[in-house]
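Today's session is about reading a structure prediction critically. Students often jump straight to the picture, but the first step is always the sequence itself: look for stretches that repeat, for charged clusters, for runs of hydrophobic residues. Only then move on to the predicted structure, which in these notes is written as discrete structure tokens rather than atom positions. Here is the chain we will use throughout the hour.
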Amino acid sequence: MKKVLAVAAAVVLLQAASAAQAGISFSINVGGPPVVVAQPPDFLYPPELGFGVAVGVPYDMFYLSNAYFIFRGGGWYRTDYYGGPWIKVRPRELPPELRRYRMRRIHEFRDREYRMYSRDRNSYRGRYFRPTGERREEHREMREQRRDERRDMKELRRDEHQQMKEQRRDEHQQMKEQRREMKDERRDERGGGDRR
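Below is the predicted structure for this chain, in token form.
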């Protein structure tokens, strides 16, 4: 195993060296950020921003346009469910609201709003959002439904294939019988012509 890893590393280094000489750059995409959100985060809506900013999570997470966004490691990621899977997006693909402010300014608005929220949550008058686990349940149900549909389609194709196979076999059998009958008729005609 160590030899295989060493050979793979050597190949990557050689390719990187040859690419560097040719002036070509490349990157290896290893998927979205490893984000773990054990429970739905709380989102506060600072009036200046107009979108949800997560509090109580160690990520710069935002909610707007029915999607979740994370700014992590200098890159933006998007998902439809707060627990992922996360897909990398380019800054120009972000909603305009997210591009309007620098991250430092967003943190200022978030922190000010969070101070008001944490003083007395019961009398907090700002906008607040906490996603439910229903979204995950919907995704699970949709996956199950798609799996059932694929299974049904597979069974339908198998049945159609079986019917076509039987139909071809029946047609082949009929053609075989017709040839035999024609052959018998010719033989009878030849045999009948000799008797006269």
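Discussion point for the tutorial: The two ends are 89 Å apart (CA to CA).
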